[in-house]
Amino acid sequence: MNELFIEVSPNLNNFINSFREIGYTPEIAIADIIDNSISANAKKIEIYALVNPTPIIAIIDDGWGMNKEELIEAMRLSSRGPNDIRDSKDLGKFGLGLKTASFSQCKKLTVVSKKDGEINGYQWDLDFIVDKGEWLLKTISDLESVAYFNEIRDKSAGTLVLLEEIDKIERSDFSNALFKVRNYIALVFHKFIEGSVYNRKVEISLNNNPIKAFNPFNENHLATQNLSEEKIKINEHSFTVQPFILPHHSKLNRDEYELYGTEEGYLKTQGFYLYREHRIIIYGTWWGLHRISDGHKLIRIKIEIPNSMDEHWGIDVKKSRAKPSDVIKNELKRIINPVLEKGSRTYKSRGRKLEDKTITRFWQIIPVNEKIRFSINEEHPLFTELFESLDQSQKERFLFYLKAVQTYLPLDAIQARMQTDPFQIDQKNILKPEEITVIANKLKAKGLTQEFINNLLKTEIFKGIKNILNE
């Protein structure tokens, strides 16, 4: 049987437009390009991003560089397959990162590389490709005309990646995009910037300003709970899991609390942090094993995997998403259950302060039909002293007012503020020390019994200043 074959080529313009919409953000795209620099053993990576006269982004490294043949191959779409065996230090996966990351932000990608004294440059120009109807790679004959060429020429080896005709970042949003780039790189590559990987420190800068590493676990703080690391083996491969419980805000100053909350906040950054070859792939996710919870917002769990386990983790082409297999999920579920209990104790222990019988508090927790209620303590000595001075009509109005205060306690607003900015809440300064002194003097002038004074000394007001009633 003779079969007839018809070549049906894709509409190149439509294909390219679709190809560009993979879903990269500017920070994920630049991180994907940086992966190549780190894999090339770079010790210094410089990022330049200019909006005027026309937006351009350049990434320059001092890595091994590439000769002519290697550079042409690197410019090829899908130059390597996801199943290729990679060096253990290789951060790549599909052989698409350089191209897809760049095309997601711009229409012209130029790469110039120097190796063994030889400098070569090639360019993908998407408008040119659409016009010609073919994937034609341009050879850069006038290398001196390429922006930042001098930076490569003066190095013994290295590579320049230049993004031009940037059309995916609005000029008005360029500054904000760079802010996100800086923060993302500080997090994703923090181990390389710290110098804790392969005994090699990588300097990364943005517009000549060094990017400082951001370790999301605040590991050196005395109040951080560094729980035991566990090694899990799947077939012939293994990975490690280590949970951390960050300090309660009362153990930190405001700046440190906000730093580790990040721009996204503690709620969105709780959960797993997946590292692939020491580079963060995804963070702030529970993969459906647990729901985001305010009581667990201080829990962050570090997972370290080798690049040989990609098939078990479902790493996407952008290296910003992962989907662990069911076998791995079962292991992670087993690990997080006791961690969730331990992590919630930070807040439970603080809730127990209201139940401390050694202190007479203004508020108390009352169980009501398997629920709880926050209620004003009507046995507080100041309450009883005031209440007894009222006539019956005043007592009724006073009790009604207090019930209304308790009913309309702004719990949602309190919870929202505690989640986003607990340091902004300033309740303690409502009652001034001089006001406490005045009321203490008035109470003493009434000729209080020693029993009443002893009861007052157990209250929150006179905690730490007990002598004020006995002077």
For the record, the CATH architecture of the largest domain stands as: 2-Layer Sandwich
Topology-level CATH name of the largest domain: Heat Shock Protein 90
Strand order of the largest sheet: 5-4-3-6-2-1-7-8
Low-confidence stretches: 90-95
Helix-strand blueprint:
Layout: H1 12-19, H2 26-39, E1 44-50, E2 56-61, H3 68-75, H4 97-103, E3 106-115, E4 118-125, H5 126-132, E5 138-139, H6 149-153, E6 158-166, H7 174-188, H8 190-194, E7 203-206, E8 209-210, E9 225-226, E10 230-234, E11 237-245, H9 254-261, E12 271-276, E13 279-285, E14 299-305, H10 310-313, H11 326-351, E15 363-368, E16 371-376, H12 381-387, H13 392-407, H14 411-420, H15 433-445, H16 450-457
Parallel strand pairs: 1-7, 12-14
Antiparallel strand pairs: 1-2, 2-6, 3-4, 3-6, 4-5, 7-8, 9-11, 10-11, 11-14, 12-13, 15-16
Helix pairs in contact: 2-4, 2-7
Quick recap:
The chain has helices spanning 12-19, 26-39, 68-75, 97-103, 126-132, 149-153, 174-188, 190-194, 254-261, 310-313, 326-351, 381-387, 392-407, 411-420, 433-445, 450-457; strands spanning 44-50, 56-61, 106-115, 118-125, 138-139, 158-166, 203-206, 209-210, 225-226, 230-234, 237-245, 271-276, 279-285, 299-305, 363-368, 371-376. The protein has 471 residues and is of the alpha+beta class. It has 3 domains: 12-210, Histidine kinase-like ATPase, C-terminal domain (Heat Shock Protein 90, 2-Layer Sandwich), CATH 3.30.565; 225-352, Ribosomal Protein S5, domain 2 (2-Layer Sandwich), CATH 3.30.230; 363-469, no CATH class.
